[in-house]
Specification:
heterodimer, A: alpha/beta, Pyruvate-ferredoxin Oxidoreductase, domain 3, Rossmann fold, 4 domains, 7-stranded mixed sheet, 6-stranded mixed sheet, 19 helices, B: alpha/beta, 8-stranded mixed sheet, 12 helices
């Protein structure tokens, strides 16, 4: 079974042993050889000691979703070894530390064992226990490079880049790689049948994580105030924002910063600060995950009703409650769409790759100020915390921030009475003023209670209803300006449609190809935003059956479509995965095929 | 309910240094109960701002939820106000302050809003040393929901319905000092002579200025046996000193033996006379001892309690730019395409 550039390698490590950088060097080397890769961390909610896995899918065809079936397991963790042996596909390989002999319960007849005495080599070569630990990881990468035909020069180059400024460290690492290569050369037939061959399939693409891209997007979009409370898997959004803001927005002479970051006491305070800063005219955001969104509900309702911009990046994880905090899901759709009591609705954006994360985060700030309402960017752990091959970031140098409808002192000077909630333009969006604009004009009282068009408190039913209707009109305006869905075909070709969004996109695209090979043709639409516009409605109307692919138990996106577009539920068929692992194309194919047989 | 207020104002109303009359610092008609202590405090805030010649639009008023939190509608009508959600004013104030360091932030809260539901945010706003005034209108009860005890009600205090509060009170003054507040005072809504100079000094203070104002609830907590009734407070009040606010460039007139002058950050001064024995407002230990002694004796200690006139507020700590962040735009905030291309290159 020669499989060039098409296999999955999984590393079984112990959390906190320095395996992460060795493993990512492995993935990056294949990427540098022009071959598409998808690395994924499968990690515990733990700092040190528990099992952790790193999975790299190599795909000549460029499929970036997760795939079941391990072709090569690199087993460096005795705790999980039994499970790791079992998870190798028949005919696959099992690399392990052969310093001690393998117990017979680990022996399978249908896989090939590659024993390398990793600890033995380290004991012989190094005296410092920390070095023994760290170089063990580099040695197995060296061994893999020989077994899989990874170009050694590429690994050397990566080490040189990694230790730039600490050049002393390069040579010992190269030497450790060579120890692995040498052992393979002396003991095995190599390369294996699964291996890599240089290609030119990557082009200008980059390898980056979604959280970093969101943080960078916030820097480019001119966010100046970030308030947050640490929570997995969103933490690195603000950390990356800080990294890039420090780099690009600090005055080199004075050290003064054009941004402020506050680590709040909890998520309630984080979103409160964001609301306060936006009310006062700064672009401000927070990042959190499901449990944080639950806590932020109250302020999101205030933001909706008092019409205050806010940007919230929700990196979804497996719920409910604390759930599986280090596993992925798309299960905050319902709570985000309707967050808070009373009649509330929120604009949602659904990035599906790092470039999307960058662009939709930037767009979120424009939308928030244009619509004067909270915007929630729904990403997830898989996208946020793993590196993804992505088109490079782009920015239009002519782009101006859309600060929305804001009266200046001069506007106020030349107009009659200012009405904060007057719908002067007929689009449901009123004009606002920043505090401190004019000595005698334009001040108003912001409140979560009902008020009239001039922001004066009222309990008059008619005035209340008129205001709620204006908010609905604003919602209709939002439909026209949020990102449109992406259609994979110019003209519909099939009575069958499929809808997906976010990180379900990778495996959905692959599943569409696989089904096409079985002569099942699907028209496809990728959702980018809520509220849904006419195009979304039309797509569903144009198909007899539409599969909705998503990663939660309750088919939340399907429910939202049914609820908002008044679609016959029978028409929308759920295709779900909610085990905490990213959805696979095989699973989608299986689910869709099952339904086709029934139909 | 309050009453028709004449719209006519005498043309010769006195003006302050920046040509505003007192009317320019008034707000909408109060809808609180007649005789509510909160209305006196609103009046004191307006008076202090008028006398300080603060431009009304350079102040932002913020509040949470409750009777006290309604009051920002009743003073400084030319200022932006934000009546936020219950117990969460400190976070909104933090965000607002970060967005524009040039405005004055005046937070109004109540004992329920700060000592119960908002305790978490209250203490963290102090820790961060926001540059703001944080005034609690403290009546020991929940007015809007008809008189339940709050967390500042004293142990043993009797409610209007006759029940005795069995829990210990949270003392916001002692707590804020413990947390490092750099300006701490307590006052009484019935003592404008003390309250107005304290508010002025609090506005001038460059960090977190906390004022706990005992403000009796005439409807639900003004009965015999309540330790927050007008009569009880008047009988048990004890001041650390008299307080006079002396604006910049004005000479201090009187000079008594037991007096102290504290120069504030901008050059204005607080003149304190008839000093409480053993108390030095710039010495935290003596302030805490004075507070504890008063508590032991069943006295309500009012006046300035503690001050650290020069302090680094949150913007200083964060090293934020001097230009308010809310007026910056893409020309300075966006790193541009060359930086982005370099970043792309580093990710290949």
């Amino acid at each position: 079974m020669t499989k060039i550039n098409d296999f999955v390698v999984r590393f079984a490590n112990v959390n906190g042993t320095g395996s992460a950088s060795a493993n990512s060097m492995f993935a990056k080397a294949i990427f540098r050889m022009g071959i598409p890769v998808t690395p994924k961390n499968i990690f515990p909610s733990n700092i040190q000691g528990l099992p952790t896995w790193y999975e790299v899918r190599v795909s000549e065809k460029g499929y970036l979703g997760r795939r079941e079936g391990i072709d090569l397991m690199v087993s460096v963790n005795p705790q999980s070894m039994l499970k790791d042996v079992e998870s190798v596909r028949s005919g696959g390989y099992f690399m392990y530390d052969s310093t001690k002999p393998l117990h017979k319960e680990y022996i399978r007849e249908d896989i090939t064992y590659l024993g390398i005495p990793l600890m033995g080599i380290c004991m012989e070569q190094y005296t410092d226990p920390r070095q023994r630990q760290l170089f063990k990881n580099i040695i197995y990468v060296g061994a893999l490079s020989a077994l899989l035909d990874i170009e050694f020069a590429v690994l050397e180059q990566l080490l040189a880049e990694q230790f730039k400024g600490k050049e002393k460290l390069v040579a010992p690492n190269v030497q450790a790689l060579q120890l692995g290569v040498k052992y393979v050369q002396e003991n095995f037939t190599f390369p294996l049948e699964i291996r890599v061959e240089r290609r030119d399939l990557v082009g200008k693409r980059i390898l980056f994580d979604g959280n970093g891209a969101c943080g960078l997007g916030a820097v480019y979009a001119g966010a100046t105030v970030a308030a947050w409370y640490p929570i997995t898997p969103s933490t690195s959004v603000v950390e990356k924002f800080e990294k890039y803001a420090k780099k690009f927005r600090t005055d080199k002479e004075t050290g003064e910063k054009n941004f402020a970051i506050v680590q709040a006491e909890d998520e309630l305070a984080a979103i409160g600060m964001v609301i306060g800063a936006n009310w006062n005219g700064a672009r401000s955001f927070t990042a959190t995950s499901g449990p944080g969104v639950s806590l932020m509900n109250e302020f999101l309702g205030l933001g909706y009703f008092a019409e205050i911009p806010a940007v919230l990046i929700d990196v979804q994880r497996t719920g409910p409650s604390t759930g599986m905090p280090t596993r992925t899901q798309q299960s905050d759709i319902t709570i985000s769409a309707y967050a808070s009591h009373g009649d509330t609705k929120h604009v949602l954006l659904f990035p599906s790759n790092p470039k999307d994360c960058f662009e939709l985060t930037a767009d979120a700030f424009d939308l928030a100020e244009r619509l004067q309402t909270p915007i929630i960017v729904l990403t997830d752990l898989d996208l946020g915390m793993n590196d993804h091959m992505s088109e490079p970031f782009e920015w239009n140098p002519e782009r101006k921030y859309d600060r929305g409808k804001v009266y200046t002192a001069e506007d106020l000077e030349n107009m009659g009475r200012f009405g904060r909630y007057l719908d002067s333009d007929g689009d449901g969006i009123p004009y606002r003023t920043y505090p401190g604009t004019h000595p005698t004009k334009g001040s108003y009282f912001t409140r979560g209670t009902s008020r009239d068009e001039y922001a004066v408190y009222t309990e008059d039913s008619a005035v209340y209803v008129k205001n709620m209707q204006r908010l609905e009109k604003k919602w209709d305006t939002a439909k026209e300006i949020v990102p449109k869905p992406y259609f994979y075909q110019e003209k519909n070709m099939s009575p069958l449609g499929v809808i997906f969004f976010g990180t379900s996109t990778y495996s959905s695209e692959e599943a569409i190809d696989l089904l096409r090979e079985q002569d099942v043709v699907l028209d496809a639409m990728q959702l980018k935003a809520f509220p849904f516009n006419k195009d979304v409605e039309q797509f569903i109307e144009d198909h007899e059956v539409v599969f909705v692919i998503e990663q939660n138990r309750d088919a939340q996106m399907r429910s939202l479509l049914i609820n908002e577009l008044e679609i016959n539920p029978k028409k929308l068929i759920r295709v779900l995965n909610y085990d905490g692992m990213p959805i696979t194309a095989d699973k989608i194919v299986k689910e869709i095929s099952k339904n086709l047989t029934v139909a | 309910m309050t009453y028709i207020r004449p719209t006519f104002r005498h043309p010769d109303l006195p003006k302050n240094k920046i040509n505003f009359t007192k009317k320019d610092y008034e707000g909408a008609l109060s809808t609180l109960c007649a005789g509510c202590g909160h209305d006196s405090i609103s009046g004191a805030i307006a008076q202090a701002c008028f006398e300080l010649s603060v431009e009304p639009h350079r102040i932002a008023k913020l509040s949470g939820i409750g009777c006290s939190s309604k009051t920002p509608a009743y003073f400084l009508g030319n200022s932006h106000g934000f009546n936020s959600v219950h117990g969460r004013m400190p976070s909104v104030a933090t965000g607002a302050y970060l967005a524009n360091r040039d405005l004055l932030y005046f937070g109004v809260s109540g004992d329920g809003d700060s000592a119960s539901i908002g305790m978490g945010q209250f203490v963290h706003a102090i820790r961060r040393n926001l540059n703001m005034v944080y005034l609690v209108m403290n009546n020991g009860c929940y007015g809007l929901t008809k008189g339940q005890d709050s967390a500042t009600a004293d142990n043993g205090s009797k409610s209007k319905a006759g029940s005795v509060n069995p829990f210990n009170a949270i003392d916001l003054v002692g707590l804020s000092m413990e947390l490092g507040a750099t300006f701490v005072a307590r006052s009484f809504s019935g003592d404008k002579a003390q309250l107005i100079p304290l508010i002025k000094a609090a506005i001038k203070h460059p960090g977190f200025a906390f004022i706990d104002v005992i403000s009796p609830c005439v409807t639900f907590n003004n009965n015999v046996g309540s330790t927050k009734s007008y009569d009880y407070v008047r009988e048990h009040i004890e001041a650390t000193s008299t307080v006079d606010f002396v604006p910049i460039m004005e000479e201090i007139t009187a000079n008594y033996e037991d007096s102290k002058e504290i120069t504030l950050h901008d050059g204005s001064a607080l003149q304190l006379q008839k000093l409480h024995q053993g108390w030095n407002p710039e010495d935290k230990l003596s302030a805490m001892i004075a507070l504890q002694n008063a508590k032991e004796k069943g006295e309500i200690l009012t006046g300035l309690v503690y001050i650290e006139p020069n302090t680094n507020a949150l913007h200083d700590v964060l090293q934020t730019a001097k230009t308010p962040l809310n007026i910056l735009n893409e020309d300075v905030l966006c790193p541009g395409i060359d930086a982005l291309e370099a970043l792309n290159e580093s990710l290949r």
